[in-house]
């Protein structure tokens, strides 16, 4: 049976790294898959995907009309290829239409892996990605009305994506009831990649293959991805940015954030950070060597 598995995350939480390991795991070659040929499926918010299925230009529709039709797009795509599996990146929060139906459609969706990263590390990475200072990135992460591709005065390749705050985004996915969601922490991907990726791939219905998994992880090391980008660019790199792959480190917030910035992130997201082990019993961030 075919269907869609979603690779969901708040931006800068390891989605590209995960998709690289996935692409290399599914490939049969003996060299790393090109980062511009990951081929894990279009992002859920791709305007081209929706336009191709609808047969009309979404530029002629309102944002509300597009959001209303998106579940139908995913269901139709699966119906047209009933024996195929898709692994699609998504940054949208797990939201619902007015009739209660989830944006990602529970009929088309087989499940999701939700990639979770310490928001203290997300903040400096997001700031660099967006070309803003860290305070602005922290404010965005705390904005309950935040959305991507919201602009109405220009057309982009991405549709509106309602995000909410970092905490709201995390909660929307990890507590979703309509589809099974496997939560994968970025920190666990670093600490024990074989176990972390292996468990996630099992949740995605992939066969167990330890040798191929080990090779896929080796082919997706940060230095390898960064070298590929340096050699021939990366199509997901934001316009105006010299590079997409910044550091790929865990715990780098200790070198990047001021005490006041750390306190603001905790004030905004303390309960969710506590829930997923980013704070100790006293509500203070767990300090570990940056790796």
Give structural notes.
- The protein is of the alpha/beta class and 291 residues long.
- The chain has one domain: Rossmann fold (3-Layer(aba) Sandwich), CATH 3.40.50.
- The protein is built from twelve helices and six strands.
- The strands form two sheets. It has a four-stranded parallel beta sheet, sandwiched between helices. The chain has a two-stranded antiparallel ribbon with strand order 4-5.
- α1 packs across α9, α4 crosses α5 and α6 packs parallel to α12.
- The longest helix is centred in the N-terminal third of the chain and has 18 residues.
- The radius of gyration is 19 Å and the shape is globular.
- The model has no long low-confidence stretch (mean pLDDT 89).
What structural class is derived from the secondary structure elements? Answer: alpha/beta
| Overall average residue pLDDT | 89
Would you report the number of β strands?
6
Classify the helix fraction into a percent range: 40-55%
The biggest beta sheet reads: 4 strands, parallel
Number of helices: 12
Q: What is the helix/strand order?
A: EHHHEEHHEEHEHHHHHH
Q: What is the second-level CATH architecture?
A: 3-Layer(aba) Sandwich
CATH topology value:
Rossmann fold
